[in-house]
């Protein structure tokens, strides 16, 4: 669905572009004297400065208007990579896009982030291709099934969770064994991973249950910088000194756009769920990663600790001097240097995949 803006919202792009340009110049100047709490390279330091200004200055609707949809980005990626685009229509208006051989032994269903309001950018599809290639190099096969869900505020919770469950339902309907299926997601997509795991163990009252056959378990779930506490303010933390690509300014508009008029619950805010909620999650292993310089790190650390208290097979990894969702957004900005978090996700997949 195309986003429509008022004339005032369109005219607002002019001063917004000016402020974003100034942020880039400021990033150049301040980047000459970086600390450990800031990006490793000047290029990334400038890129993060621009991203901070863009996400703080523009509304979700303005950003959607100015960026191509997930579907178009996938089609562009497929053309450039010279592969056949393979898109599946799912329930509740969602779409799924295949990257890699859909007959691969293992499948990772990926839920992209972006505060529920931004489409998947090219960095996602580059990252998916890296995952597929890494498994191939290790003599294992993997395909990624990327969900395109309806962005907020066009639709609000629980629509996106219904669509996330629909993606899992579709993959299971192909006859695959659950122990060859992985869930993956970053930021808001990590929230959807936690929501799907919650639904599998505790069916959501507004979503059709999805029982796994013969009490089976999924192979694993990987969450990069999961956003599992939708408070409208991020907790203050000393480690944030311009080393991340988001700021507290995004919390209120993004969370509010997703929640809409619905009450928050354990499916939207797994960080607030009781420890007992985690115990019956039907998954063999869970990986949670975060960036050492990201503003969400306190939330991620607290979330991982509670998760592990209720579900022992959880691993936490923090990438030194990395920002929010660095494995994907660094690629989006044009830096192909492998991140510690990305390397960890790849090694974790190689270990667990059949």
Report what the structure shows.
This protein is an alpha/beta fold and 354 residues long. It has one domain (69-352): 3-Layer(aba) Sandwich (Rossmann fold), CATH 3.40.50.1820. The chain has helices spanning 7-11, 13-30, 42-57, 60-66, 70-81, 122-137, 159-173, 188-201, 251-259, 297-310, 326-333, 340-352; strands at residues 87-89, 95-99, 106-111, 142-148, 181-186, 218-224, 283-291, 314-319. The chain has an eight-stranded mixed β-sheet, sandwiched between helices. Helix 2 (13-30) runs antiparallel to helix 3 and helix 6 crosses helix 11 (326-333). The radius of gyration is 19 Å and the shape is globular. It starts with 6 loop residues before the first helix and ends with a helix. The model has no long low-confidence stretch (mean pLDDT 95).
Search tags:
354 residues, alpha/beta, Rossmann fold, eight-stranded mixed beta sheet, 8 strands, 42% helix
Strand-helix topology:
Layout: H1 7-11, H2 13-30, H3 42-57, H4 60-66, H5 70-81, E1 87-89, E2 95-99, E3 106-111, H6 122-137, E4 142-148, H7 159-173, E5 181-186, H8 188-201, E6 218-224, H9 251-259, E7 283-291, H10 297-310, E8 314-319, H11 326-333, H12 340-352
Parallel strand pairs: 3-4, 3-5, 5-6, 6-7, 7-8
Antiparallel strand pairs: 1-2, 2-4
Helix pairs in contact: 2-3, 6-11, 6-12, 7-8
Spatial arrangement of strands, main beta sheet: 1-2-4-3-5-6-7-8
Report the CATH architecture: 3-Layer(aba) Sandwich
Total domains, how many?
1
Helix percent band: 40-55%
User: How large is the count of helical segments?
Assistant: 12
User: Which shape, going by the Cα principal axes?
Assistant: globular
Alpha-beta content class:
alpha/beta
The total beta strand count reads 8
């Amino acid at each position: 669905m195309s986003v429509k803006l008022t004339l005032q919202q369109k005219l607002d792009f002019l001063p917004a572009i000016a402020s974003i340009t100034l942020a880039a110049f400021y990033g150049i100047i301040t980047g000459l004297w970086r600390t450990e709490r800031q990006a490793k390279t000047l290029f990334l330091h400038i890129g993060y400065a621009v991203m901070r200004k863009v996400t703080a200055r523009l509304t979700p609707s303005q950003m959607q208007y100015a960026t191509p949809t997930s579907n178009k980005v996938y089609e562009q990626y497929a053309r450039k990579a010279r592969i056949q685009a393979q898109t599946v229509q799912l329930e509740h208006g969602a779409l799924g896009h295949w990257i890699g051989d859909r007959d691969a032994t293992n499948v990772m269903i990926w839920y992209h982030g972006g505060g529920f309001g931004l489409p998947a950018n090219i960095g996602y599809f580059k990252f998916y291709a890296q995952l597929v290639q890494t498994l191939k190099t290790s003599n294992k096969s993997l395909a990624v099934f990327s969900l395109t869900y309806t962005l907020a505020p066009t639709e609000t919770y629980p629509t996106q969770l219904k669509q996330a469950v629909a993606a899992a339902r579709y993959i299971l309907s192909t006859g695959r064994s659950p122990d060859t299926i992985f869930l993956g997601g970053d930021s808001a997509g990590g929230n959807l991973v936690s929501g799907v795991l919650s639904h599998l163990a505790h069916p959501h009252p507004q979503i059709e249950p999805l029982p796994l056959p013969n009490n089976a378990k999924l192979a694993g779930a990987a969450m990069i910088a999961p956003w599992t506490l939708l408070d409208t303010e991020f907790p203050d933390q000393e480690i944030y000194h311009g080393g991340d690509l988001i700021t507290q300014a995004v919390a209120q508009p993004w969370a509010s756009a997703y929640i809409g008029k619905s009450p928050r619950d354990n499916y939207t805010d797994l960080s607030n769920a009781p420890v007992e909620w985690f115990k019956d999650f039907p998954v063999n292993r869970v990986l949670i990663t975060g960036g050492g310089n990201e503003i969400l790190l306190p939330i991620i650390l607290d979330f991982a600790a509670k998760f592990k208290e209720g579900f022992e097979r959880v691993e936490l990894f923090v990438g030194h001097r990395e920002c929010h969702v660095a494995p994907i957004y660094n690629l989006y900005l044009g830096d192909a240097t492998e991140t510690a978090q990305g390397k960890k996700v790849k090694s974790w997949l190689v270990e667990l995949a059949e």
